[in-house]
């Protein structure tokens, strides 16, 4: 009797446990804001230029997302996208790490350069991407930025730089540090030609990048709350034996102390750049 009872086919459905049930929600559908902890749809976040609608926290953007946000649709033409780093110092595992970053980001290096329009104003644009080796500056990053500056000189166009970097790339040693002088020299030539350079700091901009081309703009702008500095906070405090202000090395701190011209929310950046470009565009009439 008991055997017949247990052998009967079940007429009810069972719900598999969480461990047994595959997750139906695709990863990346929702995003949690690290500032206010609000959970939002990733698509809605992207529509809002990667800015939290609850607290205005500025999420990181990829290079192409920023270009799409800033440039007039369909006007950006990439330059020197084929350039890629080698391993000049035979640093262990460096080539493997570069290859992983290429696959992850679909970029050949940590900066994208090109020509485009911003509200009808033509300019040369360079945008760093912190996903690729933390946006570190190696020889190819310096070369691409230098070539972009030279393109601006040749075409008599303004140059706009969006920085996002952890600094010089240690795997390339002194060759990386040389890019500080190389890019700064190119910007000097741009200035001597009377051409405009707008530098935009994004989170984070540190190390050799902040100490070279990022800080040399005719206009130095920044997104809100961006980390900007050379050495780390802990190193500075240990060196000077003093506790630093809580907002030290933020964009707002630098603005207060005269090292930035303006802190611009991402939603206003395109309009702000267009106004500056208009101000420096000769009247052809």
TrEMBL record:
Record bears the keyword Ribonucleoprotein: no
Major localisation: cytoplasm
Cofactor: Zn(2+)
Region Disordered: start-end pairs: 1-23
Location(s), subcellular: Cytoplasm
Domain CoA carboxyltransferase N-terminal as annotated: residue spans: 29-285
Catalytic reactions on record: N(6)-carboxybiotinyl-L-lysyl-[protein] + acetyl-CoA = N(6)-biotinyl-L-lysyl-[protein] + malonyl-CoA
InterPro entries referenced in this protein's UniProt entry, alphabetically: AcCoA_carboxyl_beta, Acetyl_CoA_COase_Trfase_b_su, ClpP/crotonase-like_dom_sf, COA_CT_N, Znf-ACC
UniProt cross-references to PROSITE patterns, sorted A to Z: COA_CT_NTER (PS50980)
Residues holding Zn(2+): 33, 36, 52, 55
C4-type zinc finger segments: 33-55
Any single Pfam family the record assigns to this protein: Zn_ribbon_ACC
GO molecular function, one term: acetyl-CoA carboxylase activity
Entry's EC annotation: 2.1.3.15
Function recorded in the entry: Component of the acetyl coenzyme A carboxylase (ACC) complex. Biotin carboxylase (BC) catalyzes the carboxylation of biotin on its carrier protein (BCCP) and then the CO(2) group is transferred by the transcarboxylase to acetyl-CoA to form malonyl-CoA.
Family designation: Belongs to the AccD/PCCB family.
Subunit comment: Acetyl-CoA carboxylase is a heterohexamer composed of biotin carboxyl carrier protein (AccB), biotin carboxylase (AccC) and two subunits each of ACCase subunit alpha (AccA) and ACCase subunit beta (AccD).
Matching HAMAP family: AcetylCoA_CT_beta (MF_01395)
Protein's name in the database: Acetyl-coenzyme A carboxylase carboxyl transferase subunit beta
Protein species of origin: Thalassorhabdus alkalitolerans
Gene that this polypeptide is encoded by: accD
């Amino acid at each position: 009797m008991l055997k017949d009872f247990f052998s009967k086919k079940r007429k009810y459905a069972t719900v598999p446990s969480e461990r047994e049930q595959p997750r139906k929600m695709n990863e990346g559908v929702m995003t949690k804001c690290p500032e206010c902890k609000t959970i939002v749809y990733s698509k809605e976040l992207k529509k809002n230029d990667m800015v939290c609608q609850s607290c205005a926290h500025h999420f990181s953007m990829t290079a192409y997302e920023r270009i799409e946000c800033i440039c007039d649709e369909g006007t950006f033409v990439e330059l020197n996208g084929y350039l890629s780093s080698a391993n000049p110092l035979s640093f262990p595992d460096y080539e493997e790490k570069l290859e992983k970053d290429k696959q992850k980001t679909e970029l050949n290096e940590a900066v994208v350069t090109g020509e485009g329009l911003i509200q009808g104003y033509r300019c040369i644009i360079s945008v760093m991407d912190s996903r690729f080796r933390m946006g570190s500056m190696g020889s190819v990053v310096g070369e691409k930025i230098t070539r972009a500056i030279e393109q601006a000189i040749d075409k008599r166009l303004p140059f706009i730089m969006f920085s996002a970097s952890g600094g010089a790339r240690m795997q390339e040693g002194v060759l990386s540090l040389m890019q500080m002088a190389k890019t700064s020299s190119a910007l000097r030539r741009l200035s001597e030609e009377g051409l405009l350079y707008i530098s935009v700091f994004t989170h984070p901009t540190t190390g050799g990048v902040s100490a070279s081309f990022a800080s040399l703009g005719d206009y130095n702008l920044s997104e809100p709350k961006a980390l900007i500095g050379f050495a780390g906070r802990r190193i500075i405090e240990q060196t000077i034996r003093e506790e630093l202000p809580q907002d030290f090395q933020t964009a707002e701190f630098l603005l207060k102390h005269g090292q930035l011209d303006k802190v611009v929310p991402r939603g206003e950046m395109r309009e702000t750049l267009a106004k500056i470009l208009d101000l420096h565009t000769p009247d052809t009439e």
